[in-house]
């Protein structure tokens, strides 16, 4: 596959005390972050936390209330969308229905006054990149959902952006296609070498795709880092709960996050002080693992994930008492 974008143009993107206000609502609160050049970043958080506002400010589709956005050494805060070196991939339903695939991809070039033959050639290169050359003459309505998304991607990439912005690009797809397109996005980012900034509320999606995850909550960045670091050592209770798969223990001197799969489940009592006991409330079989919900008294409801082999060696009944322990290195202190 050919490299269609000049890697020398790929630069880091920085948010410097970037703020978005809508009237009295502060949607994004003076956030700072440096998106490394050529990486796949996911902005992750619940609905309303400010992800889309952040992305739209980067794209230039939303005015920045305060602070700056830098691309390399250029301050792009107030530049129009087409002059920033960024491009937004819009949802597939934003394709123009009355013109064919190649004309959709070439559209921004047409607006710039690029010669017809030149823009058609460029559009075909982009269609090749997303494996859609054979569909160049079709109308969007004659394509599947996944194919329409590839066209939407080609349409965004034709401007040769340094940073591609994607707002929940997989949310309209069925689960099977979502996982397939997810792999394709990652492959495309790797091949092009440009930066992708992808907004999602799905933890799985962020863990699978990102080189860096930026977890947002209430207009702020709670934690940013490599997926493994964020998952393994969440810094706050919010991150531990939102990223999933964690218990938060609160009764000790310091709240602790403990991965559900690092909680060791014993069917027989352990010496006092080495375990907490609890009653099994629920057992959920998930194929390779089995999840136990456990009423652990003062610690509330905890979740332990066991391998299927371990569980079925001596199955645990709902209502039985189990003893939970963990290695000290698996417990991560949370900020108060
Ligand atoms: P997310 O993408 O994480 O769901 P948004 O950036 O869309 O979050 O929204 C962040 C906050 O800003 C929310 O409280 C939302 O209601 C508010 N908001 C977003 N867009 C507008 C707007 N155009 N006018 C007023 N408030 C808005």
TrEMBL record:
Residues 13-243 form the ABC transporter domain. The keyword Oxidoreductase does not apply. SMART domains: AAA. Keywords: ATP-binding, Nucleotide-binding, Transport. It comes from the Bacteria. Pfam families: ABC_tran, TOBE_2. GO terms for biological process: quaternary ammonium group transport. GO terms for cellular component: ATP-binding cassette (ABC) transporter complex. The keyword Ribonucleoprotein does not apply. InterPro entries: AAA+_ATPase, ABC_SmlMolc_Importer, ABC_transporter-like_ATP-bd, ABC_transporter-like_CS, Mo/tungstate-bd_C_term_dom, P-loop_NTPase, Transp-assoc_OB_typ2. One of its GO terms (molecular function) is ATP binding. Belongs to the ABC transporter superfamily. This is ABC transporter ATP-binding protein. It comes from Roseibium limicola.
């Amino acid at each position: 596959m050919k490299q269609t974008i000049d890697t020398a143009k790929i630069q880091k993107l920085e948010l410097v005390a970037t703020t978005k206000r809508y009237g009295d609502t502060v949607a994004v609160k003076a956030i700072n972050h440096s998106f490394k050049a050529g990486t796949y970043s996911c902005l992750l958080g619940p609905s309303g936390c400010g992800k889309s506002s952040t992305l739209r400010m980067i794209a230039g589709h939303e005015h920045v209330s305060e602070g700056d956005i830098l691309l390399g050494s250029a301050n792009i805060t107030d530049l129009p969308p087409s002059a920033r070196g960024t491009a937004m991939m819009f949802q597939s339903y934003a394709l123009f229905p009355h013109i064919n695939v190649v004309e959709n991809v070439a559209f921004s070039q047409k607006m710039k006054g690029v010669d017809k033959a030149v823009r058609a050639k460029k559009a075909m290169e982009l269609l090749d990149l997303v494996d859609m050359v054979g569909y160049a003459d079709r109308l969007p309505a004659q394509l599947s959902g996944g194919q329409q998304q590839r066209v939407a991607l080609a349409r965004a990439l034709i401007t040769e952006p340094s940073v591609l912005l994607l707002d929940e690009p997989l949310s309209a797809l069925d689960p099977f296609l979502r996982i397939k397109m997810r792999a394709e996005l990652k492959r495309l980012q790797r091949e092009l070498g440009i930066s992708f900034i992808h907004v999602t509320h799905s933890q799985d999606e962020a863990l699978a795709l990102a080189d860096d995850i930026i977890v947002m909550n209430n207009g702020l960045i709670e934690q940013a880092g490599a997926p493994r670091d964020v998952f393994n050592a969440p810094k706050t209770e919010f991150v531990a709960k939102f990223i999933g798969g964690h218990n938060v223990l609160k009764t000790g001197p310091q709240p602790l996050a403990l991965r559900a799969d690092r909680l060791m489940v014993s069917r027989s009592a352990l010496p006092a002080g080495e375990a907490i006991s609890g009653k099994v409330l629920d057992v959920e079989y998930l194929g390779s693992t089995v999840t136990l919900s456990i009423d652990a008294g003062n610690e509330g409801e905890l979740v332990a994930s066991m391998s299927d082999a371990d569980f079925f060696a001596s199955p645990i009944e709902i209502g039985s008492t189990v003893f939970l322990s963990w290695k000290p290195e698996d417990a991560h202190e949370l900020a108060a």
